[in-house]
Specification:
Elements lengths: L23 H4 L5 E5 L2 E5 L4 H22 L8 E6 L2 H8 L9 E4 L4 E5 L11 H21 L5 H12 L8 H10 L16 H21 L4 H10 L4 H9 L3 H15 L1 H60 L2
Parallel strand pairs: 2-3, 3-5
Antiparallel strand pairs: 1-2, 4-5
Helix pairs in contact: 2-4, 4-5, 5-7, 6-7, 6-10, 6-11, 8-9
């Protein structure tokens, strides 16, 4: 996922909680100030008071929204936002697992979101509000995982976080998803349970299709579909059981139905791709045939030239012999 052309909103979630240092030095630094609002706390450096208040209000709204839309309550303990000032502080929160292109990281063990405050730019892909909402969704799902001792698939984590934040991912080109969907070449969700591909293009596709599948569930089932799946997992079911109980069909079957809906909706793209591919194969075949014929022709011409030279020599010898016969 290195060399990604654009940042993906919030772009990072620490699933392997036990292996990640919680950034205690950063969070408890003596020079960090604290802002407490209802249910949230912000820790920041002097000079970042304005962005700290924005972060606190964004987290507060996202926390309320998570309780309403996802059915997840955080209890009395505050959710923490840490505004790192500079890349070194930000990377200290997540050790080596923080990608170079990331803007924020969720730390479930601390009920915290760490943001690289130096990279925040309002009304862009790095806008603070959707970044906070995205990471808060990860924290909410992680809390259910701890309570139930069950795991949500990574694709579900990312799909819910993107739809919850209300902003589609900006890392990838959507045409890649459309072409893959039209070709029937999407990545099976079974392959996205615990990790996304390392290849940047494949990782982009994984993010895009995760968001698309969750958004499709909202449209075709109900606005409560995700909250119901989460509640069923909290009650002790594993994810696939919770999915089937909620939707009324196995997840694999719904995945096929969803993929087929894209192929039907974009037949022109599939046809264009197939025609392009067919023409490409035909063109390649034509070129190969042309080269074969050309090589054969050159060989034939060479044989003809050799034979012509040979007959020329024979005719010259015959003429010389005739001349010698006439002049004894």
């Amino acid at each position: 996922m290195r060399n990604a052309p654009r940042r993906f909103l919030s772009v990072f979630f620490v699933l392997a909680v036990a292996t990640v240092a919680p950034g205690a030095v950063l969070a408890d630094a003596a020079d960090m100030l604290r802002l407490s609002l209802r249910g949230v706390e912000v820790r920041y450096h002097d000079g970042d008071a304005g962005i700290a208040r924005q972060a606190g209000l964004a987290l507060q709204a996202s926390r309320d929204d998570a309780e309403d839309r996802l059915g997840i309550r955080f209890g009395d303990a505050p959710v923490l936002v840490i505004l790192a000032h500079g890349r070194d502080e930000y990377e200290a929160a997540g050790t080596s697992k923080v990608p170079e292109w990331s803007l924020a990281v969720a730390l479930p063990s601390r009920r915290a979101v760490v943001v690289d405050a130096a990279q925040v730019v309002p009304n862009t892909a790095n806008d603070l509000r959707p970044v906070i909402a995205h990471e808060l969704a990860h924290l909410a799902l992680a809390q259910v995982e701890v309570e139930s001792r069950r795991r949500f698939p990574l694709w579900f984590h990312e799909g819910v976080a993107v739809t919850f934040s209300g902003v589609a991912p900006l890392r990838g080109d959507r045409s890649r998803f459309r072409i893959a969907a039209a070709q029937g070449a999407l990545i099976p969700f079974d392959d996205l349970e615990n990790r996304f591909p390392e290849d940047p293009g494949d990782a982009d596709l994984a993010y895009l299709q995760s968001e698309a599948f969750v958004a499709w569930l909202y449209r075709t089932e109900s606005r409560a579909v995700v909250a119901t799946i989460i509640a069923t997992v909290r009650e002790g079911a594993n994810f696939d059981e919770a999915f089937e109980r909620t939707v009324g069909a196995p997840r694999a079957a719904m995945e096929k139905k969803w993929a087929a809906s894209h192929r039907k909706r974009l037949p022109w793209l599939r046809i264009a791709w197939e025609v392009t591919t067919l023409l490409g194969v035909m063109a390649a075949g034509t070129i190969v045939a042309f080269l074969i014929v050309r090589i054969r022709n050159r060989r034939q011409h060479k044989r003809w030239r050799d034979e012509e030279r040979m007959w020329t020599v024979v005719e010259e010898d015959d003429e010389n012999q005739d001349e010698e016969g006439e002049n004894p």
